[in-house]
Design a protein that fits this description.
The protein is α+β, with helices and mostly antiparallel strands and 492 residues long. It has a domain at 378-491: Sandwich (Immunoglobulin-like), CATH 2.60.40.10. The protein has 17 helices and 16 strands. Strands 8, 9, 10, 12 and 14 form a five-stranded antiparallel sheet that branches. It has a four-stranded antiparallel sheet with strand order 13-11-15-16, with no helix packed on it. Helix 5 (130-146) packs across helix 9 and helix 7 packs across helix 9 (207-227). The radius of gyration is 33 Å and the shape is elongated.
Length: 492
Amino acid sequence: MPGSREIGVQPIDIPRPPAAGQPVNIKAVDASLFEVRRKIYPRAVTGRFATSRWALVFLTQAVFYGLAWLQWNGRQAVLFDIAARKFHLFGLVFWPQDIVYLTVLLVISAYSLFFFTALAGRVWCGFACPQTVYTEIFLWIERRIEGDRPARIKLDGGGLTGRKFRLKLTKHGIWIALSLWTGFTFVGYFTPIRELLHELTAFSIGPWEAFWMLFYGFATYGNAGWMREQVCKYMCPYARFQGVMFDPDTLVITYDDKRGEPRGGRARSADPKTKGLGDCVDCGICVQVCPTGIDIRNGLQYECIGCAACIDGCNQVMDKMGYPRGLIRYATENAVNRGWDRTAMLRRLARPRVLLYGTILVAIVSAASFTLWHRVPVKVDVIRDRTPMMAETGDGRVENVYRLQIMNTDETRRRFTVTVDGLPDVELAARDLPLELAGATSRMLPVRVRARPAVAEPGVKITETIVFRIVGTPMDGGAPLMVVEQARFVVP
């Protein structure tokens, strides 16, 4: 791409070693090897992409803060109940045996990352990443209290006054309150949030809940209030390996240097062609609105998170100057180099890599949805009891003891019956049958199985296969469900 530079490769001016007998300038070496952070004051910007970004801010935070309070069948709709080892997701209840769905979710997330990155670069980072979302919220609070970019620079550059102390105290107080509420909401997805609120107001909150609420709140306050772009530049691994996921047909934010160069200031009424200038007026707005402080005119850089704030800022300047929009725009390397129009560029987006990722993603999501839709809400685990492996009864039969872990995984109350077959004269004994289970509960049921197996040779121990049939009948009169599980029956 014209004007681009290699991601993560920057020249470092290292002083030459001093001659013998000359002192080493340690400060010069430190300054050349370590970049001192320059605080960034992003300027407020309006436009189509800024509106989209704020729409996602409202959507994600409405889901995060509101979903924890939603009730479903008399309980919290979304709850990771670690103590009970259950995950409630509206009408679905997932158990440890359902870990395959977590694996599928991770695979879907990975292919979504591949698909959207190959298609539109770091669009996730710029619009929906929690770091971006909370940084936008914290910046909005900062602007409302301290003013826009020039006012904040002037405030920080001046001495400590009563006004400055009051503004800083107000800003950080609101930041801390929002961070603590964020930490409280996060913990509310693992401990029922209404109970958590009652414990918090009664000062009886548990130590682990308090720790995680403070830890998550501190992380939110530190990342969004203080570190900001440092998280994206130095801590987030996605920023480092994104370059290998791009290709010349990936949509990224680009500066059209053929149209914009040579840049330079001019009056609004001046004709840039007569002055030998491009459309870029060198106003610096694209740098001032960038949350990571880069100059997109230098080409694609790993610090760019794809938020498109520079596009909105540049378009406003182009409108004021009477020039066409799109000096900075979403485009591909091939589209810029070859002069493709929008139709040709979008047609190239449907290339083999994107189609492959998209096909795999749709297939996995479809298979997971089909499996969830046809998921049997009764699960049974057969566990051999820790008593002796087998015993002989007085009538010549052999007895094995099992424990059946019966799980009623949905919200329907059911009555369970258990039968067994697979051997001659087989008989099952359990004192708690039939068994009634409320919705989203489980029960360990001990059972004894007696059978008259075929006679084996003396001193030889063999195993036979038996089959448990567990039938769960809904108490409201719905259709019964049957689960079949095999087990090994030990014979002397």
